[in-house]
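Colleagues,

Please find the record for the two-part complex below.
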Amino acid sequence: MRVLYFAWVRERIGLAEEEVSPPAFVETVADLIEWLAARGPGHAEAFVDRARLRAAVDQDFVGLDAGVAGAQEVAIFPPVTGG
Amino acid sequence: MIRVEVGRTAIDVAAEMARVEREGTGAVATFTGLVRADADDQGRGVRRLDLEHYPGATEAALVRLAKEATARWSLAAATIVHRVGPMTPGERIVFVATAATHRGAALDACAFLIDRLKTDAPFWKRETRGNEQRWVEARTGDDAAAARWTAA
C-alpha cells in the first residue's frame, strides 16, 4: 500500500510518500494512522491531533472510519485550503 | 465544454474567457481569486504564497464539480483553472467561468464551483511573512458556504 502525505503532515513526517504493509488488524484509515504513528517521532507528531486529519482512499475523500482493505493508495492530509 | 487545469504558470484570463465565449451562449459569469497581502498582528504582510496539491486527485475532484454544475444548471461551459507552486500578492490563484443561456444559471453555477472547490478539492496554502512560513488553517465559513448548495 502506498501512503501519501501532504502539507504539514508531509513536513512533520519528512516524507511525501512511503510504501507500507500494514498488519491484518489495520482495517480502517483510523487504524492505519494509529499504526503509522508508531513508526517514529515525526509520524507521532503529525498524527497527534486526529481531528485535524483528513484522508483519501484511492483518491476518493473518505472519513477516518472508512475501510482500507485492498486499497492501493491512501493519502493523509490536513483540511484543504484551496481557492 | 468542461475545462480543468492545474498548473504552475500564470492564469491567462483573456484566453480562458475567449474559450468560454466561443461556446456561443448568452451569459458568462466568472470568479477570479487573487493572493492577498494580509498583514498579521505584527504588520507583516504575506510576501509569498505556496500552493500544494494532490496530483491526479485534485484534477479529478475539479472535473467532478464541473460535471455536477453542468448537469445542475445546464451549462454550455464550465472552466476551472487553479494555480499551484509559489505566488506573490496580486497574482491570480484561481479562475472559474461558467456559460449558460441566462445570467441566473451562470452566476449560481459560478458561485457553486468556487464555494465547493474550497472544501472538495485537495489544495493547501502556505504563507510566508518575513522569514516565517505558516500553513493556512481551513475556515469554518468555507464549510458553511459549501453546505448551502446541498441544503435545498
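DSSP finds three helices and five strands in chain A.

Comments are welcome before we finalize the supplementary table.
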